[in-house]
Amino acid sequence: MTHWLVLPIVLPAMLAAILVLAARYHLVIQRVVSVAGTVALLGLAVGLFWQASDGTISLYQLGNWPAPFGIVLVADRLSTLMVLITCVLAPLVLLYAIGSGWDSRGRHFHPLFQFQLMGILGAFLTGDAFNLFVFFEVLLIASYGLMIHSGGQKRLRAGTQYVLYNLLGSTLFLFALGTLYAETGTLNMADLAVRISNLDAGNSAGIRVAAVLLLMVFAVKAAILPLHFWLPASYAEAPAPVAALFAIMTKVGAYCIIRMYTLVFPPDLELTQGLFDVWLMPAALLTLMLGMLGVLGAKRVDRMVAFSVIGSMGMLLASVAVFTQAGISAALYYAIHSTFAAAALFLLVDVIRARRGAASVSFADAPPMQGGALVAGLFFVAAIAMTGLPPLSGFVGKLLILDAARSSDLMWWVWGAILVGSLIAVVGFSRAGSVVFWKAHQARDQDIAPETPEPEPSTALAMVSIGGLLAVLIALTVAAGPVTRVLSATSAQLFNPAPYIDVVLTTPGKKIKSDYDAANQPKETAATGQGATESHDSKAGDDAHGSTVKDN
Amino acid sequence: MELLVATAIGALTAAGIYMILRLRTFPVIIGMSLVSYAVNVFLFASGRLAVNAPPVLTDGVEVYIDPLPQALALTAIVISFGMTAVAVMLAVGSYLSADDDLVNDPDVTDGSPDGDLSRNGGGAS
Asked: pTM for this one?
């Protein structure tokens, strides 16, 4: 058994601890360690992705305990894909944070950033439902810290709302897990899948409740319509690099929906029929429309981008809700695309905010900004991608989704919502672009207002970071063919969960002796011995939840 | 006993939800704690209720209680404790900087450059 699989979780956890303990007051050291760490993570992620790309499903048993008893990490195509997206996003966002100086505007940016990565990567890799909850908490508690990084009244207020909303979400998650456990007696996802498929359909009220509760929890994370209220304020008020990193967090919700409802509650399961076409699809379409209307109605650029994130989540989940192989693979393509597009837009909003002086990100008149042409160009590209105009990846993603939706009963609704929504988004983004970049010149011609205090220009590093995000989008467009092939293989693997279940449940682990009295002693020593050989933090992340919370 | 536990969970949750729907941070945090107590009891009960049964399977024991929900409840307690602490810190910070302890944004100033337009989203505030 190799330990590769646990490294994406252990590495950021260790780095975060080191950063807090050893490099607390040394920003330069923090920056170096943090960048080195995320680049190493990228390497790891590429390695794992390559390893899983031939369809192997690798398993890591924590403490070497076999599956239903111990916690397992599983790397299949989907997990490694999501890990790879996160690890490509992280260094770029980090570069921006360093380039724009956001990380120096408050304490502990880098450790929190690493903890956040640990939580996200753990959530993608884990094969245990309760462990998923724990990683959710890790990523949330780090995100609370990041969200209010550098303080300020508005940010604290938005942060409070965000925290309270997510606390409620976590409680709901626990209720769902309790119900699941009461019904099945296990929380390992593969084991759950086996046991739920054997349940008697007539006597299944509890498991239905659990399925709906879980869907609600993930819908909170993914900001689906009735549960999206936390998103606009928190994304708009969060520091830009944090908002950009948060672009992956909504995808954690989408990932969990895809994972849970292909593996544990597969589409052919009689118990949960109707959950997708009756509930998720309309909710997703309404989310899409609401997000796009929000884009049009927003009076500030940051909120507009936050609403476009909601809209794109609606689009993504509409594709998931079709629930065919084509639908899932289109959703995955769109997930990659919208992560990077949203991240680029959040960073651009920050550049605009820094350079527009008093008018900030509102649509008020302001003199043209310094270096406006470059920013305008980048905004133009990012907006094209986000709204899904040709030639960028948003357009390809949308085409894939429209194509996948042809098999749905609600096809015309999906087509209508996506096409109308996109049109509205195009109008919204054009208005923003013209007000911020063009009307500025008009205002200058007419009169007035030479310069508010010289805005601090973002450094080249920040621009490189935004350029990098857009480059990923362009690469995604150019390589659309190979990428979709990989994604349809991913989704084919999801729709054939037997190998996954087989790998998880049949891999032998540590022998558990049947003679309990004799086994009790060796078990104790073996567990502590394992703790010593494995790094402390992997235990902190995966077993001893208490110490994780303390570390934060 | 089932009735008692179920009623307790229901009452705690109902009281908690009611408190969460208040406007000020202090009742909301209290409500959050109540709901998390409810969920802890719920998790505990998900392993079935039994009295005076050992949680470990050893020879000669006929009736035993599932130890896993207890471990889950412990984890949940630790996490919700930490989270409540964070929420309290944030609420205090928000109170000190804004001089009131409302959860929503009371001062929506539409259109001004710095105005917070959270009403925009139909209730982000």
From this structure: 0.87
